[in-house]
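Tutorial sheet, problem 5. The two components below are modelled jointly, 612 residues in total.
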Amino acid sequence: MGSRASTLLREEEIEEIKKETGFSHSQITRLYSRFTSLDKGENGTLSREDFQRIPELAINPLGDRIINAFFPEGEDQVNFRGFMRTLAHFRPIEDNEKNKDPSGTEPLNSRTNKLLFAFRLYDLDRDDKISRDELLQVLRMMVGVNISDEQLGSIADRTIQEADQNGDNSISFNEFIKVLEKVDVEQKMSIRFLH
Amino acid sequence: MSTISWAKRLLGKQWATLRMERGAREKNHQLYKPYSNGIIAKEPTSLEEEIQEVRRSASPRELDANGTPEFDISDILCFCRRGVESIVDDEVTKRFSAEELETWNLLTRSSAHFQHLSLRLTLLWGLGVLVRYGVLLPLRVTLAFTGVGLLVVLTTIVGFLPNRRLKNILSDKVHLMCYRICVRALTAIITYHDRENKPRNGGICVANHTSPIDVIILASDGCYAMVGQVHGGLMGIIQKAMVKACPHIWFERSEVKDRHLVAKRLSDHVKDRGKLPILIFPEGTCINNTSVMMFKKGSFEIGATVYPVAIKYDPRFGDAFWNSSKYGMVTYLLRMMSSWAIVCSVWYLPPMQRQEGEDAVHFANRVKAAIAQQGGLVDLLWDGGLKREKVKDVFKEEQQKLYSRTLVGTHKDRSRS
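Model answer (C-alpha cells):
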C-alpha cells in the first residue's frame, strides 16, 4: 500500500530537489501532491491552462505574468523540477543561511534572487532594463480601465525619474535594487511553508 | 479503529453493522474536526493594507498633496506573492476532489497520501476487502434493487387511486419505506438533529450538496417534492413513476434555461398548501463537503419560508463526495456500497424568511452562513460552477478597481485638494 504520490517521485529526485531548493522532504512530497492535482492532463507537466484554472490566480491582475515566470524561455510545459525551482524563490530566508559562505552559488531564495524574480515580471523582453513601455504595460494590467492614459503616463514618468540614476530613461536591475533597499523584501516575497 | 477490527473478526453483516453504528454514535463529538494540515500559512491582512504597509516602509515621504496618483514600484511584490500563494494552495480547486484524511481508513481509494506501514496493516486491509466486496456489497446491491423496484411499482399503483387524501397518505408511506430500504442498502448511519425544525408544506428546504445520496438521506426522514431535470433511462422511469403518486417538479432540458418558467412553477407549488415542501440544492453541483459554495439566488427570490438543512459526512467510514468528472453514477454507487458505511449528521435549522428590503443574494448568503456554521464547513463566496467553467472577468476587474483606488484614493480624498 505505497503512497501513490511519492512512488512516482523517486528518492533520488527528492534529494536533488532538496539540495537545489532547500525544501524539506515532507514539503517536497506535499508540493508534489499539489503539482499532480493541478496536472489535469496527467502527463507530468503543467501547461498555462492548468495554472489558469485556479480562480484566485485568474483574478489576480498580474496572473498571466506570474504564470509566465514558471515557464522557461519559449516553452509551454513546466515539469516538477522547474515548478519547485520557481517556488524556491519564495522560501523564507532562514537565519543559518544568512551567514553562509559567499563562495558557493547563491541560494534561490536570497534577497537578490527574490528581487530578480520581481524585476523579471516587469522586464518582459529580458534585456535587463525596465523601459517606459514595459512599466506602462504592467501598470495597465494592474489598474485595468480605471485610470486614464495621461495619468498612467505621468505615473510611469515619475517612477522612472525617481529610480533612474544613469539617465538612460529606464530602470536597470541595480537601480531597481536601490529603490527597494528599504523594503523588507525577505518578508514580502516569502511564503510560510508548513512542516 | 478498534471498533472496525472488532467488527471484522466476526462474520455476519448484522453484527458488523450494529457494532459500527454504536462506534459511530459514541465518537459523534469527535467526528467533525476539520483537516487542518495545510501546505502554507497565509497572511490575514487585505491586499490594500499590505500595499500601504510596504509603501510606508519604503519611502516615508509626505503624501502628495495635490492628488497625483501614488504608485510605488514595490506594489508588485504583494500581487506577486499572493499569486504564488494561490498556486501553492487555493480555496477553490481543492473543493472539487475528495477530502484528504488524517489517518488511513483501510480503503485503497483514500490511500493516496499514506505510506506503506506494515504487514499487519496490509493483512487487515486484505480482510477488509474480503468483507466489503464479498459480504457487504452483494447484500447491499440486492437491497438497492429491491428498494428501487418497490418504489417504481408501488408509486405506480398508488397513482391509480382517485381519492386525494388516501392517495397522499399512501404515497408518503410508500416513499418513506422505499427510501429507508435504500438507506439500508448503503448502510447509511444518519443522526438527525433538531427534528422539530423539519420542513413543512409550502416551504423550501435547502441543503448543501455533496452527492446524489443527499436526496435519499433527507427523503427517508420526511416527504419532499423533488426538483430536477427529466432524465432518460432508468432515472426517467423512476421519475415518471414517482410523479404519479405525488407532484414532483421535473423540468424538460429546454425549460431549465428559462428562469421565469422555473420560478413560476416553484412559486405555484409553494402556494398550494396541500403540496409537499420542495427540496433544492442551491449550489447546483456536488462539492466535497469541506465547504459551502455560492448559493444560486433563484430559490430565494420566490418569497417562501426557507428551511435550511446542513449535511455533514464523516469521511473516515467512506467518502460520499461524487466527483462527476472522474466517476459515472453507477461506478459511484458501487464505490458507495463497497465502503464501510456512510456516516453522516443532518441538522434541521430553524426556518428563515427574507427580511424587509433584503435582496435575494443577501438572503441566500445569510442562509449559507447558517448552514456552514452548523455543519463546520468553510463558507465560500466562490461559485460551484467553477468546477467546469472559467472564472468571470468581472472579478478581475474588481481587483483592478480596488488597486486603482489605492493609487488615486477615493473621491473624498481628492476633493480635499
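Marking note: Chain A is about 55% helix and 5% strand. Full credit if you identified this.
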